[in-house]
Amino acid sequence: MFQRILYQDMDFFDRPENSSGALTSKLSSLPNALQELISVNILLILIVLVNLVASSTLAIVYGWKMGLVVVFGGLPLLIASGYARIRLDQKLERETGERFADSAGLATEAVTSIRTVAALTLESQILNEYDETLTGIVTKSARAL
Fold first, then answer.
1. Which long-range CB contacts under 8 A does 10-13 form with residues at least 24 apart?
2. Full DSSP string of 39-95
3. Are 71 and 60 in contact (CB under 8 A)?
4. Would you call 75 exposed, middle or buried from its count of C-beta atoms within 10 A (0-12, 13-18, 19+)?
5. Which residues of the chain have pLDDT under 70?
6. pLDDT of residue 54
7. Measured in whole angstroms, how far is the alpha carbon of residue 132 from the centre of its chain?
8. How far apart are the first and last CA of the chain?
9. Do 121 and 33 contact (CB within 8 A), yes or no?
């Protein structure tokens, strides 16, 4: 991803959603997300699949009529609801990440140009703007839930 960012046109960096802080936030969060996917989630998926196959097999062996009803009647509903939950979680995480990228961009730009901010005594204004950004994020996230 870093290589792709380096080869972007100048117009890419002029867009407000691609500020230096937002890009830094995205670059720092991607390795963590990849590590979570590889370490914890892969193991969790494997455990769920083993439990699913083992419980379905045990249900069919113990009482084949009731086991087949549960496996073919209830299992598709459970799988569909699990899939829907995963998709909603991913959507919420993506939207929250995009919202926090704006606040991270503001904080990074303020810290990068701290001498200018201090010379113009804009500390309280920057702090208020950052607070408003975070309050907006909390409001939008709570509304999404």
1. none
2. IIIHHHHHHHHHHHHHHHHHHHHH-HHHHHHIIIIIHHHHHHHHHHHHHHHHHHHHH
3. yes
4. middle
5. 1-3, 5-6, 21, 30, 33-40, 143-145
6. 92
7. 22
8. 30
9. no
